[in-house]
Amino acid sequence: MKKTILSGSTVTGNLTLGNYIGAINNWTKLQNDYDCLYFLADLHALTVYQDPKILRERCYSFFAQYLALGLDPQKNIIFVQSQVHQHTELSWILSSLTPMGYLNRMTQFKEKAEKHSKNINTALYTYPVLMAADILLYQADLVPVGEDQRQHLELTRDIVGFFENRYGEGILKMPEAYVGKMGARIMSLQDPEKKMSKSDENEKNFVSIIDDAKQIEKKIKGATTDSGTDIKFDPENKAGLSNLMTIYSVLSGKTTEQIEIDYEGKMYGHLKVDLADLVVQTLKPVREKYDDLMKNKDYLDQLMKSGAERAEARAMPTLEKVYKAVGLLR
Ligand code: TRP
Predict the structure, then answer these.
(1) How far apart are CA 150 and CA 100, in angstroms?
(2) Catalytic amino acids?
(3) Tens digit of pLDDT for each residue in 61-91?
(4) Cβ distance 88 to 38 under 8 Å?
(5) Which of 91, 152, 153, 195 has most ligand 1 atoms within 8 Å of CB, for mutation?
(6) 57 Cα: distance to centroid of ligand 1 (angstroms)
(7) Whether 94 contacts 136, CB under 8 Å
(8) Predicted pLDDT at 182
């Protein structure tokens, strides 16, 4: 029996070069070793106001981006959260077990409430409960989460505890964080101390996998580097340059030592020009596949439908057991 990994992504922004590198390093291996579910968290996106037209388009776009990156819809279950109604149903039950005191502690809520002070809605507050439902519905063993989501995973584990106290064990699985093999960590282009993030407000900080050649060149050439001249891999003192070298290394297969040798006596500008070119060439097929998929929404609809059906078949038994355990008539 393979373990189940569940990974969710809020549909905001676009996937980045960092996601591309994570994907090529991990996905093929993961899909062979684990039972993998990937979903687009469109309901989570609603905790911040979304223009309906843009949200709709973005869901297609995200789905197509995942496929363009090579995620196989046969070997994995890929679906859209709102198309599997069990998420919100389980979420309601779990919210009856979640003390407000626990939600009050969530740092992401505090941050977002501050940022969107005109729209502090209840969903923004109960967001972590929906996330717990996402995870628990599928009896997920492992959840890959970034630092910003760790607290939510901890809460999910607390909720399992509350549930077991009241209703007994063996119904919900206690999930754990998935800590993958440390792949290359790709940092922000303007601020190399922080991770490259798709939800960064400054577009100059990341290359999106569907940026065109011009945008890519502009962003790479504009990346922050230090005032030195030596092309040396030194993440501590030359964070920006080293980040560019890491990207170069992953995409070209060359070691950073080799890159140092190749660029001896050359300037940062040379490396940037070559790297921009390499990124453009690497992402070209991704972008082409993406454009093709986006021209064929019917096909995307079909894949979403079959993904949702497969997800639902996995989710329903959990929801049934939970409903029964808490005393709802079936
Ligand atoms: N909250 C996550 C994020 O913003 C997305 C997400 C929603 C998620 N539900 C999930 C991630 C369940 C993992 C498991 O990145």
Answers:
(1) 18
(2) 112, 195, 198
(3) 999 999 999 999 999 999 999 999 999 999 9
(4) no
(5) 152
(6) 20
(7) yes
(8) 56
Helix (H, G, I), strand (E, B) or coil at 212: coil
Q: In this predicted structure, what is the pLDDT of residue 181?
A: 67
Please give all residues whose beta carbon lies within 6 A of any atom in ligand 1, as ranges.
6-10, 41, 44, 131, 134-135, 143, 145, 149
Average pLDDT over residues 250-260: 96
CA of 81 to the centre of ligand 1 (A): 11
> Which fold would CATH assign to domain 4-184+297-326?
Rossmann fold (3.40.50)
Inter-helix orientation angle 239-252/17-33, to 10°: 50
Q: How far is the CA of 127 from the centre of ligand 1 (A)?
A: 9
CB 265 within 8 A of CB 229: no
Of 105 and 1, more confident: 105
Q: Which CATH number does 211-292 carry? A: 1.10.240.10
Q: What angle do CA 303, 308, 309 make, to 5 degrees?
A: 100
Q: Which residues pair with 226 in a beta bridge?
A: none
Looking at the chain, the whole-number percentage of residues with pLDDT higher than 90 is 89
127 touches 47 (CB < 8 A):
yes
Instruction: Report the nearest atom of ligand 1 relative to the CA of 9.
Output: 5
What pTM was estimated for this model as a whole?
0.93
- CB of 282 closer than 8 Å to CB of 254: no
Helix (H, G, I), strand (E, B) or coil at 86: helix
Q: Where are the domains of the chain?
A: 4-184+297-326, 211-292
